[in-house]
Design a protein that fits this description.
It is built from 18 helices and 23 strands. It is an alpha+beta fold. It folds into 2 domains: 233 residues, Glutamine Phosphoribosylpyrophosphate, subunit 1, domain 1; 172 residues, 3-Layer(aba) Sandwich (Rossmann fold), CATH 3.40.50.2020. The strands form 6 sheets. A 7-stranded antiparallel sheet has the order 3-2-4-1-10-9-11. α13 links the parallel β20 and β21. α4 packs across α5, α5 packs across α6 and α9 packs across α10.
């Protein structure tokens, strides 16, 4: 896990990937696609291209427009083939050597690779590879895949990739580029998203459909769990080389991670969030409510759904300052302690004397929620009720989302009533897990075989956490040895 940002008190949105095949100025399209996917990673970005002769790679810390807005930079990335990546560091520290796409010169030629997700057995694989002489250039789990591909005994590249991925565990959506082709692949459970688009005679792979819209590409379909797509001069080919597993798409994509104008798994994210808000209103109404107020911006669609279902007016009672970024300089404790006021301010005229229902997508540590409630009360609200459009976040994610440890998640140790007392709200209620499933189109959650990955709520991890379990086993052995001394 990486350093957690208490100013936002949100779960971090894994990463975004993008790939272009057979489209002129592929780097420019990739930069636009990454710009549309900026919400999925704001620590670093990178683009690799191939011009028919050579590979070209540009990687940097920071936002896409800070790195790829100058013509002089884009001129150094020629070619009709490219892959790109936006990064939050769910594995490996946020330094340049961990920024993707990763590139390596292998025995069969150059390979560029970008990864959205997290491997749950990367540590053990890395240790074995290092013992056998592998030299790692990064601390990212993604580099394990590069080494496994390099060491595979298979002859054909697709077979090398399959051989490597059969050795890893975890969640991954990958895009890869060689001298001859672009490839995309999702893990057998399909935890992380990946979609296919088309633009004229070329193809695009991307994490979300909004990254197709920005370049005028046509959405074709989602890449299926366990599917491997190969695109080269012969066209596009699909295969399913892995053992079939139950689909476990990350349900938090519907709640928060994806952009509201995207489609995933043939579902409109915006419509899903409105329906989640409506279900939340059915399950957790507030008697005597005067206003439904979203915590901007992520709480807006659910708040609209809540207001429409409850018949209580929707109002922008909190205004967000969009010009405060993650790099805002906080030189003194006094300014730092202003916290949420850097990004949010109350709309006092609306809130004074009102019973307010605040709608947000999650409560993580509760730091922001507490300050938001305090802000609304200071504006003169008579009552403040929190309604959350996800079930309680009780467990860490190990599949590509940056979350605190279980012990740091407020809902892991406290009931909704206790949380209401901690954040000084009149009440706190969450959508139920079954209610969330109903909102996204299921009759209920199948407790024996859940239709989505909801481990952050249920603690039921669909993919074994090998590295974590081995770490805990070693800790237990160590404690036993200490106890026996």
């Amino acid at each position: 896990m990486t350093a957690y940002d208490p100013q936002t008190d949100k779960l971090k949105e894994e990463c975004g990937v993008y790939a272009v095949y057979n489209i002129e100025n592929a780097a420019a399209l990739t930069a636009l696609g990454l710009h549309a996917l900026q919400h999925r990673g704001q620590e670093a970005c990178g683009i690799a291209t191939f011009d028919g002769e050579d590979f070209h790679v540009r990687r940097a810390l920071g936002l896409v427009d800070n790195t790829f807005s100058k013509a002089s930079v884009m001129e150094q990335l020629p070619g009709s083939r490219a892959i790109g990546h936006n990064r939050y560091s769910t594995s490996g520290t946020p330094v340049l050597r961990n920024v993707q796409p990763l590139f390596a010169d292998l025995s069969f030629g150059g390979l560029a690779l970008a990864h959205n997700g997290n491997l749950t057995n990367a540590y053990g694989l890395r240790q074995d590879l290092v013992k056998s002489g592998a030299l790692f250039q990064s601390t990212s789990d993604t580099e394990v895949i590069v080494h496994l591909i390099a060491r595979s005994k298979e002859e054909k590249f697709e077979a090398r990739v399959v051989d490597a991925l059969k050795q890893v565990e975890g969640a991954y959506s990958l895009v890869l580029m060689t001298r001859k082709k672009i490839m995309g692949v999702r893990d057998p459970h399909g935890v992380r998203p990946l979609i296919l688009g088309k633009l004229n005679d070329g193809y695009i792979l991307a994490s979300e459909s909004c990254a197709l819209d920005i370049v005028g590409a046509e959405y074709v379909r989602d890449i299926q769990p366990g599917e491997l797509i190969t695109i080269d001069e012969k066209g596009m080919r699909s295969s399913f080389p892995f053992a079939k597993k139950p689909s476990r798409f990350c349900i938090f994509e519907y709640i928060y991670f994806a952009r509201p104008d995207s489609f995933m798994e043939d579902k409109s994210i915006y419509e899903m969030r409105k329906e989640i808000g409506a279900e939340l209103a059915r399950e957790n109404p507030v008697e005597g409510a005067d206003l439904i107020v979203p915590v901007p911006d992520s709480g807006v669609p659910a708040a609209i759904g809540y207001a429409q279902e409850s018949g209580v007016p929707f109002e922008l009672g909190i205004i967000r300052n969009h010009y405060v970024g993650r790099t805002f300089i906080e030189p003194t404790d006094k300014i730092r302690n202003l916290g949420v006021k850097l990004k949010h301010n109350s709309n006092r005229k609306l809130l004074a004397g009102k019973n307010v229902v605040l709608v947000d997508d999650s409560i993580v540590r509760g730091t922001t929620s507490k300050k938001i409630v305090e802000m609304v009360r200071d504006a003169g609200a008579k009552e403040v009720h929190m309604r959350i459009s996800s079930p309680p976040s009780k467990h860490s994610c190990f599949y590509g989302i940056d979350t605190p440890e279980d012990s740091e998640l407020l809902a892991h140790n406290h009931s909704p009533e206790e949380i209401a007392d901690i954040i000084k709200a009149d009440s706190v209620s969450y959508i139920s897990l079954d209610g969330l499933y109903r909102a996204v189109g299921q009759a209920r959650r199948n407790s024996d075989d859940p239709q989505y990955c909801d481990a952050c709520f249920s603690g039921e991890y669909p993919i074994f956490l090998t590295d974590r379990e081995e770490k805990h086993d070693k800790m237990k052995i160590s404690r036993l040895k200490e106890a026996s001394k």
